[in-house]
Design goal:
It is built from seven helices and seven strands. By secondary structure, it is α/β, with parallel strands linked by helices. The chain has one domain (2-107, 133-152, 169-185): Rossmann fold, CATH 3.40.50. It has a seven-stranded mixed β-sheet, with helices on one face. The radius of gyration is 16 Å and the shape is globular. It binds 5-O-phosphono-beta-D-ribofuranosylamine. 5-O-phosphono-beta-D-ribofuranosylamine binds at residues 8, 10-14, 80-81, 101-103, 172.
């Protein structure tokens, strides 16, 4: 049995989608565990409904090397809507085992503070014709690790933040589980 750890502090739609994707493939037996830094986040409710453990962590805990004992040795670590910078002890311990999803075509609209609606707002402001998603390995800098996958969608004249967010989430829900499946089968 493989073990996947997900860090999520937002609505958790990606976390839920990934878990359900693997449940639909019972031949791939995977144990999931979610970590969050926000007890009010939507992901907490979703985990409750799915009966998946959701563990609340604070920044001191996350930044202390002893956190490695708690995490153990998962096959993959997924950041899906997690905003804290991953500390270097953690990145170095899990080389090429941590992936993040970003709601834009990196290197565009990445870096500290670029998340959620702010990303879509910038895409609209710049009148970009396309946007999309990027899945990448995590290193010590925000949104800068090696890119594993990008997928695109068109931005139309009548798009707004809400419609773009929907399009981007749709891409995320389609491609993220497929890439994860490839990585854990490698
Ligand atoms: C996603 O758009 C992802 O790209 C970003 O955070 C968002 C999380 O969405 N890193 P959700 O909480 O999974 O719905």
């Amino acid at each position: 049995m493989k073990r996947i750890v997900i860090f999520a502090s937002g609505s958790g739609s990606n976390a839920e989608n990934i878990i359900e994707y693997f449940w639909r493939r019972p031949s791939l037996s995977i144990q999931f565990e979610v970590y969050t830094n926000n007890e009010k986040a939507g992901v907490v409710d979703r985990c409750r409904k799915l009966h998946i453990p959701c563990i609340l962590i604070d920044k001191d805990q996350f930044n202390d090397k002893s956190f490695l004992e708690m995490i153990g040795n998962p096959d993959l670590i997924i950041l899906a809507g997690f905003l804290w910078l991953v500390p270097s002890y953690f990145v170095n311990h899990f080389t090429d085992k941590i992936i993040n999803i970003h709601p834009a075509l990196l290197p565009l609209y990445g870096g500290k503070g670029m998340y959620g609606d702010k990303v879509h707002q910038s895409v609209l402001k710049n009148k970009d014709l396309q946007t999309g998603i990027t899945i990448h390995f995590v290193n010590e800098k925000y949104d800068e690790g090696k890119i594993l996958l990008q997928a695109r969608c068109d931005v139309n004249e009548n798009d707004d933040i809400e419609s773009l967010s929907k399009k981007v989430h749709k891409l995320e829900h389609t491609y993220f589980p497929i890439l994860i499946e490839q990585l854990i089968n490698d």
